[in-house]
Amino acid sequence: MLEVTEATLSLLRSGGRGALATVVRTRGSAPQQVGARMLLLPDGSQVGTVGGGAIEQFVLEALARCLRDGRARVLERDLGRDHGMCCGGGMEVLVEAIEGEP
90-99 and 17-27 as β-strands: parallel, antiparallel, unpaired? Predict the structure, then answer.
């Protein structure tokens, strides 16, 4: 998580814009814990993880939308039903735009 924090601070200090995902709730078996984060940078690269696999791809797509429209959203997903993941739990992920001062 230190890597995501450092990348976020660097982005904010440079006046850049990105989108940050944070796991805010889990239910049952999930690939990450509450507090896990992933940052999408303007060049499309990412730092951190929210669990990998199908949930990570879903969150990356939401981060890209957030980077375009600036709207925060909470994603609620059942990992088994919605993504066919074997862990079968659930996750809620907050996705929000972040922007540094110019």
Answer: antiparallel
List, for residues 66-101, the tens digit of each pLDDT value. 999 999 999 998 776 666 666 678 889 999 999 988
Q: List beta partners, residue 40.
A: 19, 46
- d(CA 32, CA 82) in angstroms, rounded, equals 17
pTM of structure: 0.90
Under 8 Å between Cβ of 85 and 55: yes
Work out the burial of residue 13: count CB atoms within 10 Å of its CB; fewer than 13 is exposed, 13-18 middle, 19 or more buried: exposed
What is the chain's length? 102
C-beta separation of 58 from 79 below 8 A: no
